[in-house]
Amino acid sequence: MAKSDHEIPMGERNWDILLDEGEKPDRDSWDVYFMKIAKQIATRGTCHRKHVGCVIVRDRTILATGYNGSIRGMPHCDEVGHMMEGGHCTRTVHAEANAVAQAARNGVSLKGGEIYVTASPCWQCFKLMANSGIEKIVYGEFYRDDRIFEAANHLGLELVHISKDGVNRVYTPHR
To answer: Which H or E run includes 92?
Structure first.
């Protein structure tokens, strides 16, 4: 019998498929997995007043990361002290803003992306994320600005809180 040009040449089969009979290990959900990465990124933060980390993904692929730290090339709080205004340190750039800046610096579009951040975004960072095309925001602890809930609802952004025990609470269903 003649082989067609489209057949894949097959050699001898010298392998077998082995199925494990024991229990399958529990795997973290994608949300928990990326939040754990954000928590690790937070350890790089250079302002000890609040260590925040974030990771931006699309299609389960990491696009950018960020942590709270000074402007690139400037001294850090941990080196020269905090620059305080209205009870907040303003020397640092927030983790979310640093991640968006990293993506922009490297020519990476965030349209359709998801952001995982260890603390809910402040109003300025929320606006930056919304305008950059982020469609889903997953956060750990609530930080300080509840305007994000109404705005997310209005914009159709999915806003998800992951509690310390890994339970998701969706505040704004994606439309």
So the answer is: strand 92-93
Strand 69-70 to strand 168-172: parallel, antiparallel, or no bridges (unpaired)?
Answer: unpaired
The pair of three-digit structure tokens given for residue 45, joined into one six-digit string = 């933060």
Do the strands 69-70 and 92-93 form a parallel or antiparallel pair, or are they unpaired?
antiparallel
- Distance between CA 56 and CA 70 in Å, rounded? 20
Name the strand (E) or helix (H) holding 140: strand 136-141
Residue 130 near residue 121 (C-beta atoms within 8 A): no
Identify whether 12 is a catalytic site residue: no
Among candidate residues 7, 21, 79, 96, the one labeled active-site is: 96
What would the pLDDT profile of 45-91 be if each residue is shown by its tens digit? Answer: 998 888 999 999 999 999 999 999 999 999 998 899 988 999 888 88
Angle at 85 between CA 81 and CA 90, to 5 degrees: 60
Q: What share of the chain in percent tops pLDDT 90? A: 62
Amino acid found at 30 = W
Q: Please state, in angstroms and rounded to a whole number, the distance separating the CA atoms of residues 118 and 162.
A: 9
Q: Angle, nearest 10°, between helix axes 95-105 and 123-132?
A: 30
Taking the C-alpha atoms of residue 31 and residue 167, their distance in angstroms, rounded to an integer, is 10
Q: Would the pTM count as exceeding 0.90?
A: no
